[in-house]
TrEMBL record:
The keyword Transmembrane applies. The keyword Protein biosynthesis does not apply. This is UDP-glucuronic acid decarboxylase 1. One of its GO terms (biological process) is D-xylose metabolic process. It is a single-pass type II membrane protein. Belongs to the NAD(P)-dependent epimerase/dehydratase family. UDP-glucuronic acid decarboxylase subfamily. One of its GO terms (molecular function) is UDP-glucuronate decarboxylase activity. Its cofactor is NAD(+). It comes from Diatraea saccharalis (sugarcane borer). Gene3D superfamilies: NAD(P)-binding Rossmann-like Domain. One of its GO terms (cellular component) is Golgi cisterna membrane.
Length: 444
């Protein structure tokens, strides 16, 4: 019994010893695992480990901080380099834009704040509008051009871009406009028959809704407004020459009606606003006008004949050529518009040159003014409702504005021919299209 209990005690001791050994072994494995995890969490570069191994603790921290700082400096330098590249890119863009701003503007008079006016010109980037803008600017006024660029061009006014007295607004006056102005010259409308006939609805909207918007603006801000009307309100006239008192002969449903009747309504609107709302209105009935800045594809007789003569193409007379017109040079017209705005005369005024020619004669005048021109003059189909005779009676303008045209047809045509010659030489002409091929896109 005693011997058996001694045997059990020995066995238990051996088992206990073995268990202890196993425990120590397990503890060693556990410790190694923990060490592995710590090193994988705080994975240090070899260089850093070496520092840890070789340097005292404080120095190790300092070196690590330095390395962190180096990394930050490096990324900051990179950001600065990126910013510098972006600035250089923007500077290049600014230089390109500045290159488009004229270095020198035409001379402009200085006006004190009492004399200086804020003048709105609708259609100010167009043929007549841009010449008017030039004069108003040189007089020292603040000029705001509003244009939808249907037929107007930025090129016509780009020599004023950036000038402190000049502002350009891309806007269609069929929509209301809210700005301040002392005077409004309302010229916006297509004026060339092929252009205004191309989109008759737009032509009527511009001359009716657009005119209401401009008269409404004049009423709100107390501005004086000049409406650009036309000799076309006389239609195919039964009275010759045409005085302002003649009521006209217009086909209200013909192809020209959108313009003729549109302008007649514009006049009616002007005098309705004058009577009912006390708006100060001026109405200019503008006869055929010509000069530099007419578009090569304008489609009116002056630009067509000159372009044809300069290129030795056939000069195309519509109909038998016996219809007559009287042509006024653009600078004379602009003088007339300025005089009318400044005057106290409020009824419609004819502005045009009373020297009358048949279209056939006119074709020969232009052909003879272009040296070496080999064009032939050909007659063709007549245009529907084409007025047969037109010449302004300018007695009202002479008496009330002390205005009459100064530039002779020969001088004016010579300047215009020089302009179109320059236009032809400065471009291959829209990649070899002729002006007949260029269509103006309609807007509604
Ligand atoms: O190539 C052409 C162009 C026109 N013509 C004729 O030349 C005459 C004048 O025609 P335009 O197109 O220049 O101008 P219109 O006189 O018909 O209309 C103009 O009138 C006055 C202004 O208010 C307007 O700008 C415009 O409508 C017309 O008899 C026309 O049929 C040609 O014989 N050949």
């Amino acid at each position: 019994m005693i011997r058996q209990s001694l045997k059990y005690r020995k066995t238990i001791t051996v088992i206990g010893f073995l268990c202890l050994l196993l425990l120590v072994y397990l503890l060693l494995i556990l410790k190694r695992d923990i060490n592995d995890k710590v090193t994988s969490h705080q994975r240090l570069s070899k260089k850093e480990e070496r520092i840890f191994e070789s340097e005292p603790k404080r120095e190790k921290h300092v070196k690590l901080a330095k390395m962190e700082l180096d990394k930050n400096i490096h990324s900051t330098i990179k950001e600065l380099q990126d910013a510098k590249a972006r600035i250089e890119h923007l500077e290049k863009k600014i230089a390109i834009l500045e290159g488009r701003i004229p270095e020198k503007y035409p001379d402009v008079k200085y006006l004190g704040y009492k004399e200086r006016k804020r003048i709105l010109v609708t259609g100010g980037a167009g043929f007549v509008g841009s010449h008017l803008v030039d004069v108003l600017m040189t007089q020292g006024h603040e000029v705001i051009v509003v244009d939808n660029f249907f037929t107007g061009r930025k090129r016509n006014v780009e020599h004023w871009f950036g000038h402190r007295n000049f502002e350009m607004i891309h806007h269609d006056i069929v929509n209301p406009l809210y700005i301040e102005a002392d005077e409004i010259y309302h010229l916006a409308s297509p004026a060339s028959p092929p252009h205004y006939m191309q989109n008759p609805v737009k032509t009527i909207k511009t001359n009716t809704v657009g005119t209401i918007n401009m008269l409404g603006l004049a009423r709100r801000v107390g501005a004086k407004i000049l409406i650009a009307s036309t000799s076309e309100v006389y239609g195919d006239p039964m009275v010759h020459p045409q005085p302002e008192s003649y009521w006209g002969h217009v086909n209200p449903i013909g192809p020209r009606a959108c313009y003729d009747e549109g302008k007649r309504v514009a006049e009616t609107l002007a005098y309705s606003y004058a009577k009912q709302e006390n708006v100060s209105v001026r109405v200019a009935r503008i006869f055929n006008t010509y000069g530099p800045r007419m578009h090569v594809s304008d489609g009116r007789v002056v630009s067509n004949f000159i372009m044809q003569a300069l290129q030795n193409l056939t000069i195309t007379v519509y109909g038998n050529g016996k219809q007559t017109r009287s042509f006024c040079y653009v600078s004379d017209l602009v003088d007339g518009l300025l005089s009318l705005m400044a005057s106290s005369y409020t009824l419609p005024v004819n502005l045009g040159n009373p020297v009358e020619h048949t279209i056939e004669e006119f074709a020969m005048i232009i052909k003879n003014l272009v040296p070496g021109c080999r064009s032939t003059v050909a007659t063709g189909a007549a245009v529907e409702d084409d007025p047969q005779r037109r010449r302004p009676d300018i007695a009202v303008a002479e008496a009330n504005l002390r205005w009459s045209p100064k530039v002779t047809l020969k001088d004016g045509l010579q300047r215009t021919i020089d302009y179109f010659r320059e236009e032809l030489s400065r471009t291959t002409f829209y990649n070899n299209q002729t002006y007949m091929d260029i269509n103006v896109k309609p807007h509604n």
